[in-house]
Amino acid sequence: MELTEEMIEQLKVDLKNARTYEDILGKDGAIKKLIKSTFEQMLKTELTEHLGCEKYSPSGKNTGNSRNGKTKKNLRMITEK
């Protein structure tokens, strides 16, 4: 997977505006945003591969294995203490 131009531009803006450690590696930091967008792109690609057709492609319509919408999901990371 390659980083999209949008992802690269967002990272550049975030790093340019970063003033503290938290701005880079914190909860809403530049690296977390990059990881989030990378995972989202990977999951979309995986779904396209699994279903065998691109999003909004008429070839998948009414095949029983087509896209039927989406819901927002959160990924939680469990860390050891």
Largest sheet report: none
Number of helices: 3
Show unreliable segments.
Answer: none
User: What is the global morphology?
Assistant: elongated
Structural class call reads: mainly alpha
SSE inventory with pairings:
Blueprint: H1 5-17, H2 21-25, H3 30-51
Helix pairs in contact: 1-3
Please characterize this protein's 3D structure.
- Pfam families: Transposase_mut.
- Required for the transposition of the insertion element.
- It is a single chain.
- This protein has 81 residues and is mostly helical.
- It has a domain at 5-55.
- Helix content is 49%, strand content 0%.
- It is built from 3 helices and no strands.
- The chain has helices spanning 5-17, 21-25, 30-51.
- The radius of gyration is 17 Å and the shape is elongated.
- The model has no long low-confidence stretch (mean pLDDT 82).
What's the short story on this structure?
With 81 residues, the protein is mostly helical. The chain has helices spanning 5-17, 21-25, 30-51.
List keywords for this structure.
81 residues; mainly alpha; 49% helix
